[in-house]
Amino acid sequence: MGRILAIDYGKVRTGIAVTDELQIIASGLTTVATKELVAFLKDYLEKEKVMLFLVGEPKQMDNTPSESEALIAPFLKQLSAVFPNIPIQRVDERFTSKMAFQTMIDSGLKKQQRKNKALVDEISATLILQSYLYSK
Fold first, then answer.
1. What is the C-alpha separation between 134 and 76, in angstroms, rounded?
2. Which residues form the YqgF/RNase H-like domain (predicted)?
């Protein structure tokens, strides 16, 4: 088996989370500058076997796509072109940023640490991945 890699795509930063090889545990991997995302993924896939990409799907409360979906669509095309053998699945990412922030509070992070937006993005990617694993 290979890993599942979750992507919380953002205009500036992108959070990334992965499973273990048995696809049981979701762990935050890192946050990368979005402009460096494809290069990061190429490097990562040289070292690790990834079976599936999960990409967060931002939606409004009425289930329509949010404005940031326009940023994600070109990335999805690029992702499937660069990695044609790895399927891409979308996962609803509503509330993940709020849940990530609450997770930081619950884990006892100090206010200054909670201002770290890169950490929020990484936790959001982990939440996206965890929700997928729960639904399996």
1. 24
2. 2-100
